[in-house]
């Protein structure tokens, strides 16, 4: 979905008019709705700082607004092709259904993407089982990774040897001053 459609989607989701959004963003009276209409029709493209402001107003991640161009099936296909090139996404068939999967041979890319996909799958399953509402699911998606509590992200802790080495080096550097 192009950026203009995403802005309109999130504006409508908040129940706001173009004029209201424009005024909150600081556009003056008569120009506020015109300016927003220009962004939504893509006659103008908002700068990154404005996208961040809109994301704050909509309570979503700026990335939720700036998703790739997928307004047509052809645009979607090229996005999927780019995901294949960049992240090892593969297409296949399971039980007669076309499926997308991650390619294990991509190593660390696979591990990172697997963790993210698994977190997504967990939230989708929670929605399907009635553990969370559609609104909670959407909030998780639109603010990802901020609301991700899957514990798939791990803090990297240096080994004892590395920690001791760094502590000793810091002591020596401090003593020599």
**Termini separation:** 57 Å
Sequence of strands across the biggest β-sheet: 1-2
Percent of residues in beta strands? 5-15%
**Backbone shape:** extended
Secondary structure tally: strands: 2
**Nearest-angstrom radius of gyration?**
22 Å
What are the low-pLDDT stretches, counting only 5+ consecutive residues below 50? Answer: 153-158
Quote the average pLDDT.
Answer: 85
The tally of helices reads 9
Largest β sheet strand count, sense and barrel closure: 2 strands, antiparallel
Structure summarized in a few sentences:
With 177 residues, the chain is mainly alpha-helical.
Write structural notes for this entry.
The protein has 177 residues and is mainly α. It is built from 9 helices and 2 strands. The chain has helices spanning 3-13, 18-24, 29-41, 48-58, 62-65, 73-87, 108-128, 134-142, 160-175, and strands spanning 89-94, 97-102. A two-stranded antiparallel sheet has the order 1-2. A hairpin with a 2-residue loop joins β1 and β2.
SSE layout and pairing:
Blueprint: H1 3-13, H2 18-24, H3 29-41, H4 48-58, H5 62-65, H6 73-87, E1 89-94, E2 97-102, H7 108-128, H8 134-142, H9 160-175
Antiparallel strand pairs: 1-2
Output the keywords.
7% strand; two-stranded antiparallel sheet; 177 residues; 9 helices; mainly alpha; extended
């Amino acid at each position: 979905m192009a950026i203009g459609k995403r802005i309109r989607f999130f504006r409508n989701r908040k129940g706001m008019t173009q004029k209201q959004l424009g005024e909150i963003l600081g556009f003056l009276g008569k120009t506020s709705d015109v300016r927003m209409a220009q962004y939504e029709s893509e006659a103008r493209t908002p700068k990154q700082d404005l996208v961040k402001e809109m994301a704050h107003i909509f309570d979503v991640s700026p990335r939720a607004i700036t998703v790739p161009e997928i307004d047509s099936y052809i645009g979607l296909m090229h996005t999927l092709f780019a995901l294949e090139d960049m992240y090892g996404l593969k297409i296949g068939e399971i039980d007669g259904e076309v499926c997308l999967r991650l390619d294990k041979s991509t190593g660390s890319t696979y591990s990172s993407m697997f963790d993210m996909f698994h977190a997504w799958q967990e939230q989708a399953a929670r929605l399907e089982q009635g553990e969370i509402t559609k609104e909670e699911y959407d909030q998780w998606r639109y603010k990802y990774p901020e609301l991700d509590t899957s514990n798939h992200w791990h803090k990297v802790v240096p080994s004892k040897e590395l920690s001791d080495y760094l502590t000793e080096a810091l002591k020596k550097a401090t003593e020599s001053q």
